[in-house]
Amino acid sequence: MSLNRKKSKPRRIALLGILTAIILIQNFVPFLGNIPIPPLNPTIIHVTVIVATLTMSTTDGMIIGAIWGVTRMIRAYTMPATPLDLLLWTNPMIALLPRILIGLFTGWGYALFRRIFSKRDKLALASASVVGSFTNTIFVLFFIYLFYGETYAQAIDVDISNLAGALAVIVGTNGVAEAIAAAIIAPLVTLPLRKITSHK
């Protein structure tokens, strides 16, 4: 193990600790994990996962995503806002897997966009952030449809035959708003953090 790697290990642990604390705060302190834009309420917690991926590594992004997923499950068990919360967000396929995939797809997306956009790194960062954001939205809604389609349709007062269309509307409203937020915020946070962490 090289000296540089030895030096980076404590720094990595410290960064993971800081990002974990941010995830916890965003989950449990009202309004810090969402942008209240009526009638939408887009989340910005996924931005923390995206930033972890782009600043540190794909693996670290997946770790932070997993921490978000586990935290969301704990919150659903201990502080359910509705009975639907207890149903949906205690299922690891809905609460956990999509959050892990944010890190994976953001990392893959960044590797791809760096090649496509060459020296335009900000554009690559923004594009990868959009990929990560839509990964969360699409997989969460897909698994809700797959596992609890009928129950969810009843909860939002939509006929089951129209549920796919209703979910597509969510992707086109909240999903787009979250992707735009990620594309703006993630690069703005990532670039200064990279200077601090000497990310290459």
TrEMBL record:
InterPro entries: ECF_trnsprt_substrate-spec. The chain crosses the membrane at residues 12-32, 93-113, 125-148, 168-191. Keywords: Membrane, Transmembrane, Transmembrane helix. One of its GO terms (molecular function) is transmembrane transporter activity. It holds the Pfam family ECF_trnsprt. This is Uncharacterized membrane protein. It comes from Alkalibacterium gilvum.
